[in-house]
Amino acid sequence: MSVEIEVGLENAARVPRITEEELALEETPKGLANPRVRRLLYTGGAVVLAAISGLYLYFHNRETTDDAQVDGHITPMASKVYGRVAEVLVDDNQPVKAGQVLVKIDPRDYQAAVDQAKAALALAESEARSAGVDVPRTRENVASGTSSADAQLMGAQADLAKAQATYDQAQTADLALAQANVEKSRANAELAKADLARYTPLMEKGEISKQQYDAAKANADATASALKADQEKLAQARRNVDVAKAQLDAATARVEQARAGVASAHADVKQVSMKAADAQAKLAKVEQARGALDAAQLNLSYTEITAPVDGVATHKQVEPGQIVQAGQGLLVVVPLHNVWVTANFKETQLKNMR
């Protein structure tokens, strides 16, 4: 036992002693003297510098503005027929699909017109079939009045000449005059409007009298009213052209029918040909009745106003029970697949823009 203690003491005596100064040197440095702290500071500074450099590179060639808006094409929706609104199937800012029904107009009047057109077509078809059956019988039953047929032909030709003259005048002189009046009234209206725009600041500054300003305003209102009246006359002139054309077509048809009657009256042997021509006329009436039916069905289809494109319905100006006119605006469909941003910049921002 004593031997072990002695050996331990001997080994302890050989271990070098650590002084207090050496203990102080082995303590961990604090603050910037600590290498770990310095590394963290350098890393953080590099990150901040990189962020500042990135922001500078992103923004130094860019301009910003708060005066901007989103624009796009719009599709105004209007009624093509007159009537009472039965249903409004869309709200403001509601998405719609192409072909979706937006507004329904009371279809009863137009449905009645379709029914009448169908009845007229059935009657015309019946008459056409009857005329076709009469052709063989006419070979044995011929009777005509030459004088009456000639007179009817002359009357039809006179009506045709009158209708042709009316159509030519409506298409050339009347329409040209109406267009010239519109151009003249538009020039006067624009001049009067410009004069009023010049007089307004002068009147506000007291450089002209109130009477002069009122005269300029009255002139602007009068010329604007004259322009509107001439525009309505131009529209009426265009409608007159259509009416004259229809009358010309009707007169032409009457001339053809009268000539067929004359041919039948002058030659009994041509009665069969006349009956055949009458059958053709009946067939033409069938086509006319069919065209009237198509027009009535088209008007009936106009009682349902559908969206022409995908988009959003907005600016709704129609309610159930409202009476609408042909051409009256009801709402607007804005397609969202083709929109853009219109931005306004100051002149000082434009110098480096390309």
What does this 3D model show about the protein?
- It is elongated, with a radius of gyration of 46 Å.
- The protein has two domains: 2-59; 107-302, Helix Hairpins.
- Helix content is 63%, strand content 12%.
- Mean pLDDT is 79; it is low at 1-13.
- The protein contains seven helices and ten strands.
- With 354 residues, the protein is of the alpha+beta class.
- The termini are far apart.
- The strands form three sheets. A four-stranded antiparallel sheet has the order 2-9-7-4, with no helix packed on it. Strands 6-5-3-8 form a four-stranded antiparallel sheet, with no helix packed on it. Strands 1-10 form a two-stranded antiparallel sheet.
- Helix 5 runs antiparallel to helix 6.
> How far apart are the termini?
100 Å
What CATH architecture label of the largest domain applies? Answer: Orthogonal Bundle
Helix fraction bin: 55-70%
Overall spatial form: elongated
Radius of gyration: 46 Å
Uncertain spans = 1-13
Mean pLDDT: 79
Note the total helix count: 7
Number of extended strands: 10
What is the CATH class name of the largest domain?
A: Mainly Alpha
- Which class do the helix and strand fractions yield? alpha+beta
**Annotated CATH topology of the largest domain:** Helix Hairpins
Spell the H/E element sequence: HHHEEEEEHHHHEEEEE
Strand percentage lies at 5-15%
Physical arrangement of strands within the biggest beta sheet? 2-9-7-4
- Tally of domains: 2
Largest sheet: 4 strands, antiparallel
